[in-house]
């Protein structure tokens, strides 16, 4: 007669050959599978609460005991799973990353630390962490000036009415060294500046120029192609803007004339903000509120012209992060536009600034309330602007 044993867990009596012995105790098959696991590395029978699943979702998915987990496995800091060491992509003093997650990470070319793609910086074709990038990009100082750099302006083209536009185009990501070197050496009508709002890029600043000079002579097509060939971006960054300065002298010879026409311009921007200006700008409301806020104006029907002018001029105290920045002595600044490396969009933006400024200068203050969006573009022959308005359905 075969020997019978009682299952330590459920009490069932079974032949001993059908039982599993663990530390002198016997278990039926069901209870054994419910309570224990065989470690895939050392072969020991271990309670289920003392084993860990490794290589989750992989062909070699298995369970190991705590000792083998420490000796032969690692914890991925991205997906938060344990893997055998054969699945290790790389590790440093802070992170260990598995092969499944490595596409989102780079290794710093200088200090060999692991960094997420969102926290990496490209310089000279290599990837760097923030600290090493700050050290490496010191070489950019040969081409990129400090933020406060402000050379004597050179007025480009002929504008009897003083309609000169100065452009600040922000670019980011990519390989800034190559782009900066090329622009510095080949495009003398612009200069480059660092900007603290950018991650690894710079600001391309033009000298004041006529609209015609910007379109036909300054070289924006080549500048943009240089940036694109260096994998730099402007629209697709979340950090970059396109700022356009207009000479205050365009708006009048006296301070009173300038104040009146600039006030009308701000009223027009305020009037058309939600339906037209925001879609044209390519920015969302959160971005605009942060960098280029809507004019904060409460104009009453009973306000006199002088009261309206006073209210508009008071917006200056709101600081420079306004749709129309009035902080500069010689220019007003449109800050509403998202950056772009599309020449067609860039030209349309400059043409829009030209149109709305000229319209503000000629319209009477009392007529602004009945003016329509289409009135701004009556008589314009700007092909790029017309196409852009049609494209945006505005």
Q: How is this structure best described in words?
A:
This protein has 394 residues and is α+β, with helices and mostly antiparallel strands. The chain has three domains: 4-86, no CATH class; 108-141, no CATH class; 144-391, Creatine Kinase, Chain A, domain 2 (2-Layer Sandwich). The chain has helices at residues 29-35, 66-72, 130-136, 176-186, 211-216, 220-229, 255-271, 273-281, 285-291, 305-313, 343-362, 383-391, and strands spanning 4-6, 13-15, 20-22, 25-27, 36-38, 45-47, 51-54, 62-65, 73-75, 82-84, 88-91, 96-98, 105-107, 114-116, 121-123, 126-128, 144-145, 165-171, 190-193, 202-206, 241-247, 324-325, 331-338. The strands form nine sheets. The protein has a seven-stranded mixed beta sheet. Strands 1-2 form a two-stranded antiparallel ribbon. It has a two-stranded antiparallel ribbon with strand order 3-4. α4 packs antiparallel against α6, α7 packs across α10 and α11 packs across α12 (383-391). The chain is elongated. The termini are far apart.
């Amino acid at each position: 007669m075969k020997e019978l044993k009682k299952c330590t867990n459920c009490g069932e009596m079974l032949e001993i050959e059908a039982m599993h012995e663990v530390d002198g105790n016997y278990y039926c098959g069901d209870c054994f599978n419910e309570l224990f696991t065989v470690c895939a590395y050392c072969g020991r029978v271990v309670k289920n609460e003392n084993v860990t699943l490794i290589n989750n979702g992989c062909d070699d998915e298995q369970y190991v005991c705590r000792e083998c987990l420490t000796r032969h496995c690692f914890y991925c800091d991205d997906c938060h799973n344990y893997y055998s060491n054969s699945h290790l992509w790389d590790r440093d003093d802070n992170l260990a990353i598995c092969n499944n997650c490595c596409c989102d990470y780079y290794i710093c070319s200088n200090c060999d630390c692991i960094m997420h793609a969102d926290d990496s910086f490209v310089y000279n074709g290599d990837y760097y962490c923030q600290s090493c990038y700050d050290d490496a990009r010191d070489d950019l100082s040969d081409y990129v000036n400090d933020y406060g750099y402000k050379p004597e302006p050179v007025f480009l083209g002929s504008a009897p009415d003083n309609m000169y536009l100065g452009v600040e185009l922000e670019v980011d990501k990519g390989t800034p060294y190559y782009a900066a070197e090329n622009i510095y050496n080949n495009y003398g009508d612009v200069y480059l500046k660092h900007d603290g709002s950018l991650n690894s890029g710079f600001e391309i600043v033009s000298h004041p120029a006529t609209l015609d000079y910007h379109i036909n002579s300054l070289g924006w097509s080549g500048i943009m192609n240089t940036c694109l060939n260096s994998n730099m971006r402007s629209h697709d960054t979340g950090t970059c803007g396109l700022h356009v300065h207009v000479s205050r002298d365009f708006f009048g010879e006296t301070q009173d004339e300038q104040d009146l026409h600039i006030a009308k311009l701000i009223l027009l921007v305020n009037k058309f903000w939600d339906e037209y200006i925001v879609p044209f700008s390519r920015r969302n409301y959160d971005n605009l509120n942060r960098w280029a806020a809507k004019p904060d104006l409460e104009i009453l029907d009973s306000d006199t012209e002088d009261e309206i002018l006073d209210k508009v001029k008071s917006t200056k105290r709101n600081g420079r992060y306004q749709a129309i920045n009035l902080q500069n002595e010689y220019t007003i600044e449109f800050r509403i536009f998202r950056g772009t490396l599309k020449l067609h969009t860039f030209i349309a933006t400059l043409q829009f600034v030209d149109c709305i400024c000229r319209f503000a200068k000629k319209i009477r203050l009392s007529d602004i309330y009945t003016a329509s969006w289409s009135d701004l573009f009556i008589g314009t022959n700007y092909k790029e602007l017309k196409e852009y308005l049609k494209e945006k359905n505005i």
